[in-house]
Amino acid sequence: MEIKGTGVKSGWLKNMIIKRLYFDKAMSCAGLSQLFDKSIPSIAKAINELIKEGFVIEQGYAPSSGGRRPLMYAINTNAMFILAVAMDQLSARIQLIDLNNNPVAEMATVELKLHNNDDALPQLIRHLNQYVEDSGIQKKKIAGIGIGMPGFINAVEGINYTYLDAGGESLSKYIAKETGITTYIDNDSSLIALAEQKFGIARSQQEVMVINLGWGIGLGMIIDGKIFRGYNGFAGELSHIPLSDNGALCVCGKRGCLEAEASMLVVAEKAEEGIKKGRVTSLKPHNGQSKLMGEDLMEAANQGDQFAIELLTDAGYKIGKALAILIHIMNPANIVLSGRGAKVGKILMAPIQQALHKYCIPRLSSGTELLISSLGFDAELIGAAVLVMENFDKEEKAK
Length: 399
Fold this sequence. Notes:
It is built from 14 helices and 15 strands.
């Protein structure tokens, strides 16, 4: 029996210990014994085997609490690695990271258009295989590939119903077959929510709404400590909340959706239009290259460019109007602004709050705190790594 992707002999209990130490950083034998309802000798035996195999190290004794200090154990962060992939509609970031979520190879950012691109999946596989080859890391040292991507995704079956058609086959299984590495996929916003709950500003919270401010606008919902997916697995489509009947046409075919009114791509398009009309700004035209304009616009706004701030303020107000609906339905304690747009979170905060004051019942909105992610643009990559480790024990347990 082998730990998936590593070639190291193991079993379910040892995989669970590795998984737990990845999330909790350090634990004692007694703590692991209580968590898994296993005897301390059984845990100690598994720990000693993992130390010999190079997966676990002794971290020293816990701080004194009056009694005998327990010996703490931690994961060996370089025992194996995770290939994390963060995709949006226009590009993919590929990063090999250790078990402390730190990079061990230079990140690759590749242009990869998903919409109306039949070659997107072969392109992705070529990039993944090339990246692994260039890293010099043996595949048996890679625990898995975790991929966050936009679209309607069935994470259990590994199918994306919107992009990257694998000919009816499970996308995750297809990529695993073509790369030789176990692969998991999930919606980008769900993974960002997982990252915030496991390692970010919402750590250990059981109920939190996480807004993915990317080229689109996504929502990941943590309810009762788990990702809430709804009946068909597609819950959280905040971007298609209708804000008006006569608004811009959305890619979904409806008019007035939040994404068509306030996404970063739309803000970038408005910036191009404003420049053509002679608006005073430090921004330069990018001739329809919305990604470059979006990045420059956020940077300009943080530098005080009034036109960029005006565009983000308008978008923030519309996002706030959508969040008012979310608050009325979910009554969350916290809403986290995460993803690419977290870098302008302070600028968005004021218009969002203004919209909440206008559209929310005060008794509801007063109990909800808006938070700005500290993970920001890295959240999806970290979430992709979390996805791999969340599934680390699954196949062994099934055996």
